Amino acid sequence: MSKADRDLDNEIAAHLAEAVDDYVSRGLGPEEARLAALRDFGGVTQVKQVHREMRGLTFMNWLDFKLGGRMLVKYPGLTIVGGLAMAFAIVVGIVIFQFAGLFLYPSLPLANGDRIVQLSLRDISENQQEPKALYDFISWRDSLRTIDNLGAWRDSTRNLIVADGDARPAFVAEMSSSGFAIADGQPLMGRVLTPADEQPAAPAVAVISHDVWQTRFGSDPNVLGRTVQLGGEHPTIVGVMRDGFAFPVSHELWVPLKTAVLDHAPRSGPAITVFGALAHGETFETAQAELTTHGRRAAAEQKPTHEHLEPRVVSYTDPDGAGGEDMTFMLLIYFFIGMLVILICGNVGLLLFARAASRESDLIVRTALGASRGRIVSQLFAEALVLGGLAAVIGMAVAVLFLRNWAMTFLEINYGRLPFWWDLSLSPATITAAIVLTVLAATVAGVMPALKITRGMGDRLKQTTAGAGGLRFGGVWTVVIVAQVAITVVFPAVAWFENVQLGRMQDFNPGFATNQFLAVKMERDAPVDSNAKPDAATVERDARMAATLGELRSRVAELPGVAGVTFAETVPGGEYLERRIELGYDAAEKTARGPEAPVLFRYGTVAETDTSYFDVLDAPILAGRAFNAADAEHGARAAIVDQGFVDHVLQGRNPIGQQVRFVRPGNPDGPSEWYSVVGLVGKLDVGVPYRKGPFAGFYLPGTPDLFDDVHMMIRVRGGDPMTVAPQVRQIAAAVDPSLRLVQIQRVNELNDGMLWVIRLWMNITVVMSSVALLLSLAGLYAVMAFVVARRTREIGVRVALGGSRRRILMAIFRRPLIQMGLGVLAGISIIVAATVMYPYSDGPGADEAGGLTAAALMMQAGYAALMFGVCMLACVVPTRRALNIEPTVALRTE
After folding, report:
1. How many CB atoms lie under 10 A from the CB of residue 696?
2. How many CB atoms lie within 10 A of CB 601?
3. Which of the four pLDDT bands, split at 50, 70 and 90, describes residue 276?
4. Among residues 865, 874, 678, which one has the least CA distance to residue 776?
5. Nearest to 779 by CA among 243, 350, 137, 141
6. What span, in angstroms and rounded, lies between the C-alpha atoms of 800 and 807?
7. Residue 220's pLDDT is what?
8. Cβ–Cβ < 8 Å for 257, 153
9. At 689, is the secondary structure helix, strand, or coil?
10. CA proximity to 759, closest of 489, 509, 515, 495
11. CB within 10 Å: which end of the chain, N or C, has fewer?
């Protein structure tokens, strides 16, 4: 007992003793005096309650939470269903909030990280960034006073070749030495880069990351002073960084940025990123003011190049600057989270309302004893808060498990290299958000039904039957029931759609033995200025590429077990280019169709391949001929199509000799040249595996040195294709150190990452569907049980008067049945709308024009009937209860 309660007891006891003494002095006996004093004083318990409420101690106290815990144990079904639902809402809220903060409000985990900035140029006439800022960087470095440690870096990927000849791509930062100072770059061994390393005549040096030191050098303690091959250079390792250092973004090897040897004329040279730290006492505003002044001076002095350039200073992790759009997006995310919590917890509130309604007699008695409406509401809120607290603990544990085990993999699959400052551990802001969500959930689930129950409690107190004609489900609860039934209908359909996508990817058959092929994606070092006009060095470099790939092909083909080597711009199962195709007519067709014949347009999937592609894949040429060397020469216009092209584009006509060209809507250059189809190849599914067909393959011959993306496909017979991967790396490094093998995979495993993502989404959807279905059934059961309980007397009277049981049940269940019907109809409408809007999404059964087929309509109707039947399961027990009510028992019910 608290001191305040003890003081109150002593005060009441003293007051009663004084009143008893007064009555005794008037001649009453001790017992009569005590009863008279208590009668005058009123209920002791009520007085204590009023005093506690007046001093603010009983808005909620530990007894309320204790009672809430007892309710969880007393109603295990409600605890499980409601707790799972609220936990799910909290998990979704935490994950979305964490991701939103990751993308919109990232922060550097460095000392003074909030003062590290980026300086950039924006062409306001084109409304785009100008990355070629080397000229301006040199000018800023010599003149800016509001920013310290001004530096720059450029990103590159190069082959790191160690002594054993193993060549693997490394993420390299050509960086100013100031980057180590600004990012707390303390080496584990050796030293970091210095300004002397940036001089043109300085020897080539490199600093490696802790991870590279461990994985590529076996944690060799004698690695310092070792010379390695990095692309076409041979730097000496001078330092190993501490574990976790990856500045500027996610780099693993650092070499000096030698600005003096680069072209630094205005708006030329390499693309760089400029960084720095706000000087002591300076702010973003003062730095921007100085930079703006500098920009105006540069615009006046270099008008042809700088007239429309606007320099900006922004947070290092927010290069585009957080603006109104970001805030709007963040508010939309918060709105979505809030709506999700309100919807789910509204459903939980429906359950709590039904449970509290069964306790109405108890609540009325408490009101009669002097409990205020606010006191009862606070108690029910405390009970919901206990449930919400349990759900929050479960939700946060699940959220941490998801973020640690799946979220980072999901981001890496979708975004590739991740910045070092991306941290998915729960931040204080996220934990605060989780607490807010818990309170919001308890408010929605506890306060809303409490306010409904306690409304008119005084009037019901005057009635002879507690609750007769009292509580009813209003319009808000109707919306909640309809919404939860609709969600119950939609979620299983989404899970089914994802399962279809997963099955399509797993069963995808490109038409050749994928388990015998190794796919190697290759890149070469880009020129310093990729947009510069070709000079002699660039032309020579491009000319060497064909010879390099030719030698690589011949040397790989000589490896034991290799049956063939070919090249393609895209590997089967990848993202092929889809183009709009125009078909030409021969003379006979033109005569038959007339001069006003409409132009025939279709869509086809374009694949550019090496001339040996079909031979290596053992894809038979069914008609016409295969590609030859002449077809790959400049100006040749030969093409090969597959059976899907014949069926979908040519509508079954003979493909040989057909004239085809590409048309881009709005293309100012007009359509392409006409191509002549010279061959028909067997079935090769050229398209995205998870997309609904049909696939129409259109193959063009080319030389791999001119492909935008170069993929080498190696056929290995009688063994695992990955066994040749180390030898392929060594051959590529020997042929051309600048040729990087960025991805080596078995062809039948190319889509494993996408499969993983789809499985993840399917598992999440299954969980969502299960929670929605469980909550919907529990809510409907609660509604039906509530209706039967509230109308027990009515049912008994009707049965006693000879009423038909069927009519009685229809009268009682009409409203719940209408609510379920509306929910199922709303859910099916959403599915149909999605199917029509996305006809290739399999969702379920649209034809190519976007309309629903007869089979699809029957499927939708059957699914609607199935889900209505599932929802009706919640009515089985209440229905049997209503049918078994005896009139004599019902008439005695109070």
Report:
1. 24
2. 11
3. very high
4. 874
5. 350
6. 14
7. 92
8. yes
9. coil
10. 495
11. N
